[in-house]
Design a protein that fits this description.
Elements lengths: L3 E4 L2 E4 L2 E5 L4 H12 L3 E6 L12 E4 L5 H7 L5 E4 L7 H4 L5 H22 L3 E7 L29 H20 L2 E7 L2 E2 L12 H11 L5 E5 L5 E2 L2 E2 H12 L7 E3 L5 E2 H12 L4 E5 L13 H7 L7 H27 L1
Parallel strand pairs: 3-4, 3-6, 4-5, 6-7, 7-8, 8-13, 9-12, 10-15
Antiparallel strand pairs: 1-2, 11-14
Helix pairs in contact: 1-7, 4-5, 6-8, 6-10, 8-10
The chain binds nicotinamide-adenine-dinucleotide.
Nicotinamide-adenine-dinucleotide (NAD) binds next to helix 1, helix 4 and strand 7.
């Protein structure tokens, strides 16, 4: 372990940290956060980051399903932040077309990370679970969904993605009980922000809607899957990474929601983005994969355990995200025009 240092609200020791999935959205931001705090960071992903260069001390391109690779990269590591998963938005995880792949790939990553991490003497693991593990029967009423941490059982997630998250939560907790390691688990509720996937089929609702609004001409229309009355809450990335660091440094070993409590319908989300963009657009509702009817974060437990909960308004994060995505749309158009010319 490195020397003690003091940074912001975190009295901490600098550590050697492994961040899995650092070519992706949340982990890419997490690397920045950990480096800003002074830690030494080894990052790993199948692919480089598409939109940023996470400032890791080492960035290893490799497959976390590969036991040999995982055995090597956990050497000398104090703490692991495990974000790698085969995942995407509703268009990827709720169609049923990728179920076998999602379960196999993500479970293998978690099995390898824990098995070889424990063997190498890693002391603490962070695991990124999802609100998708909550039972569907509590999320049928869009205006009154139930997602308190103690409502996870009897289990009935509405997707195989959710079932894998639940299995892996249990896998981490079992290793904590039997293998003398510490585990911290967050159940994320729709994290969004700049430097995340915004096109290609794996993007999630806020990014997809920002893209559609940015691409549309004023007075035109955008498409939304379903009637748009399904509810969700969305958490901006900076509060997510803040919550993860607070959870990691806490004594709280039970899974906690990390999400916003500002619940909106998908129509309301779209209107908010149009307002930010200064465009008036019609919404055309079309059939598509939807997920549960209603979902909202329940932040009573995190407030009690950590003395903190996310509090920033949705509009603030959406404004920053729309600015970034509209710039990506503009750059993509310019590149397209240059190719044709
Ligand atoms: P992301 O898809 O941007 O990042 C995941 C990264 O994992 C990708 O870069 C991918 O290449 C990498 N990966 C996948 N398989 C791999 C493998 N075999 N070896 C190495 N790397 C591999 O996703 P994200 O939005 O940043 O999500 C991070 C984590 O948080 C995931 O576990 C996800 O399930 C969880 N989560 C995210 C949200 C959200 O709203 N973004 C919500 C709930 C849970």
């Amino acid at each position: 372990m490195g020397p003690k240092c003091q940074k912001g609200e975190f009295a901490m020791e600098t550590k050697r940290v492994l961040v899995n999935g650092a070519g992706g959205f949340i982990a890419g931001h997490m690397v920045k956060r950990l480096k800003a705090e002074g830690h030494w960071v080894r990052a790993v992903d199948l692919k480089p980051h598409e939109f940023a260069k996470p400032p890791a001390d080492e960035f290893i391109l490799g497959d976390l399903r590969d036991q040999q690779l995982v055995g090597d990269i956990v050497e000398g590591i104090d703490e692991v932040y495990q974000f790698a998963a085969d995942m995407g938005g509703a268009g990827y995880i709720f169609t049923g077309e990728h179920d076998a792949q999602v379960m196999h790939n993500s479970a293998t990553i978690n099995l390898n990370t824990l098995h070889y991490g424990v063997k190498a003497g890693v002391k603490k693991f962070f695991y990124s679970s999802s609100a998708c593990m909550y039972p569907e029967y509590n999320q049928l009423d869009p205006s009154n969904p139930k997602c308190s941490e103690d409502s996870a059982y009897p289990a009935a997630p509405d997707s195989e993605y959710g079932w894998e998250k639940l299995f892996s939560e249990r896998l981490y907790l079992a290793h904590m009980r039997n293998c003398d390691v510490q585990v911290r688990i967050a159940r994320f509720h729709n994290i969004f922000g700049p430097e995340g996937t915004w096109c290609g089929g794996r993007e999630k609702a806020p990014a997809a809607l920002c893209r559609k609004v940015a691409e549309a001409e004023d007075g035109g229309e955008i498409e939304i899957w379903g009637d748009g009355e399904q509810t969700r809450s969305f958490l901006y990335i900076d509060e997510c990474t803040d919550g993860v660091r607070r959870l990691m440094d806490s004594e709280c070993a039970e899974p906690l929601n990390i999400g916003s409590e500002e619940m909106v319908t998908i129509n309301q989300l779209a209107w908010m983005i149009m307002d930010i963009a200064g465009k008036r657009l019609e919404i055309r509702h079309i059939p598509g994969p939807l997920g549960v009817r209603g979902r909202n974060s329940d932040n009573r437990l995190i407030a009690e355990r950590l003395g903190w909960k996310p509090s920033r308004p949705l509009r603030e994060g959406l404004t920053k995200t729309y600015a970034w995505i509209s710039e990506q749309v503009r750059a993509a158009r310019t590149a397209e025009v240059a190719t044709i010319a």
